[in-house]
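Section handout 9: paired folding examples.
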Amino acid sequence: EIMSFQGHDDRVTSCAFSPLVGDRKSGILTTSMYDGTVRLWKNLTGSEDEEFRHNSTYLTCIAFSPEQPPDERAGRVLAGSFDGSAIIWDIESKKLLLKLGVEIEGTGGWRVEKIRDRHEDAVVSCCFHPAMGSERAITTSLDGTAKIWNTQWGNCLATLEGHAQAVNGCCYSKDGQQVYTVSSDQTVREWMAGAPYTCLTVIRGHYGPIHQCSFATSGKHLFTVSEDRSVRAWLKVKLEPEEFNPDERVRVGSQHFAVSKSHMQGEISEFFQWHQVALFASTHALRCVAGSTGEDNEEIACGGADGSVFVLRLMLPGDY
């Protein structure tokens, strides 16, 4: 642990590193539905930007868009709500920009909001696609599903189904080719980020509900936090064709799986398996995790059920 932020009066429900490096809105954004506040922390000093703090009794999760200034879309925040809805707002003005899954009909003073797509239970996690201008995002819900959205128009592109219980967290891979979801069923699922949105594999190892997942700087390690009070780091290993054995049973990690890719000579298959490479046992009941956008270290910010926020750095043999 290299830093902790104390201030929330109850459990932290979401945290995210701001991509606005050098901007006055840079830092770590956290929200707690339980103490009713959204707060911005300076990750160099650990102090809170008290002028930014505002009250919100309904926001359960937050995520930043990847754009940087002078792009006018920079500073957009995707937020999920306990009523199953998701919105996009601006961090500078705090104004609402778009409601996902809602179509507005009418002109002038007569406007009607029609709900086209919405989760059937609380939205508990959300994430923008990492590519600037992609206009894609994902939300997950206690209803056991995840939804992929077009963030320009607000329409739902796909609903991901497969988890046996609530889907608590999500993230994209660094290249945006895969989506990851974590669930109370104690599993992590890897999906194709584009059509047909197929589930590629299931990662096992946690002994309690998994609350969130995130990649950090390199994009190599997937971090997950769980009710079992652990932070785990996972590494996707490429296999040689002769090593591929889809019938091999594993207790920690994933089974061998194949991914097909288009090639000039037709489709080719690559083979992979997820391995657990690190485990951090915490005294805190962990609820959320966010990967740093910095370039030097594999750092993550974690939020606890007791309101604590702390930062960890992954250091494997050879990193010293």
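Moving on to protein 2 of 2.
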Amino acid sequence: MKKILAALTAVALLGACGADTDEAESVTVGMSYVPDVQFFPFYVADDQGFFEDAGVDVTLRHHGAQEPLFTALTTGEEDVLFAGGDEVMYARAEGIDAVNFATLYQEYPVTLIVPEDSDIMSPADLEGRSVGLPGEYGANWFGLLAMLDQYDLEDVDVQSIGFTQMAALTRGDVDAVIGFVNNDAVAMESQGFDVRTIDLAPNLPLIGPGLTARGDSFDELSDAYVGILDGVEKAIDFAAENPEETLDIVTKYVPGMSDPEARAAAELTFTATLPLYQGDGTVGIQDTERWAAMSEFMHSAGIISTEVPADEAMTTQIVDAR
């Protein structure tokens, strides 16, 4: 009789344990661009099961070329969005309920690009010179404004040249261009045009890409957000130790990567992007003071109409919970 009772008790305990086991939370993560090697941590985490290991079922969704950045997030089609901190600040100022919970690029990815043989060594040398950028919008524009502000530059010929930075530099149409260190600069190098990159400013008051969610979603999905960040961190570590295998994985997600020239170009982008994710080794770290400085700068520069308190645009809740 005692053996039967013991067996029944064990069965009951096992049933209770099974009942307490939560199923993996399903979330959709929006990649704010077409498939690209810059998103390699998400591809690796998906391919290697790191998201699943962290207890979250992730669907990756890429945006179309003309898709508004925050629409899918606000309508609920996406739960998480890969977006710049500056873009989140702008969205908050426009009344969109977007909250960043992890900064993934620990350095702002926009830079000043000059030909290798240029005598421009610092943004201060741009006085009386010309600089080109795609247009007066987005990260390139925000970075340019911050650079002009910090160096008190008043006589710089700013030209909107579309996405023709390399052509404009090679023809001498402009003396320098603004572009992404892990995109425009490496693309020029891959095409045989030697360039140098120059930091826009020390302590630049801008924050690059990270993970953003709707402010009203954290009570329900905070555990899933922790899992996403855990999976991304494992993927970054994996990529640092296995760069070639990482590129093999990326090939599964990015059309055209099987072409040798495309893979070689992707390798340059990967090499330039990995340090942005790694930072000082703490993936997702949040800097409240820097967020506050960004809000102040964007307001003073006329980018946003009112200052947004840092704790409305970002949270440390997810990072602190890990």
